[in-house]
Design goal:
- There is one protein chain.
- It is built from 4 helices and 6 strands.
- The protein is globular and about 40 Å long.
- The strands form 2 sheets. Strands 2-3-1-4 form a 4-stranded antiparallel beta sheet.
- The chain is of the alpha+beta class.
- The chain starts with a strand and ends with a helix.
- 29% of the residues lie in helices and 26% in strands.
Amino acid sequence: MTIVHMVMFKFRPDVSEEHRATFVRELKELKELSCVKDNRLIVGGPSVTDPIERSKGFQYALVSYHQNMNALEEYQASHEHHWVTSTYLFPFKEDLCRFDFEVDPEDEYMCNFEKSAKTGLATPSKSEASATSSPSK
């Protein structure tokens, strides 16, 4: 079972672009934690939503994948996560929104990432995933 962890961040208006860039850079380092499934942690921003009002003022977002709830809890409790958030986020945030969910079994094939020497990381197609998970006859 894969858990998808999503967070949207909004900084106070007085927080510098330099500080925000440092936060993003440090946040991206969390992908190296073993509790992040296949190093799948993406940080992006600013929002390109049109119209921008639909972003509700959130400036950055994070999406990460975890093998299960224990792995997500390990991520949240890690020294590295605590350091990044307590140093660069919580004293400077205006708002944040967190949403975590368990991937439906029928969609789990999209979270089974395999390393490919030629192209980096690849996601199997649904037909490939069902072929490899079907019992042999």
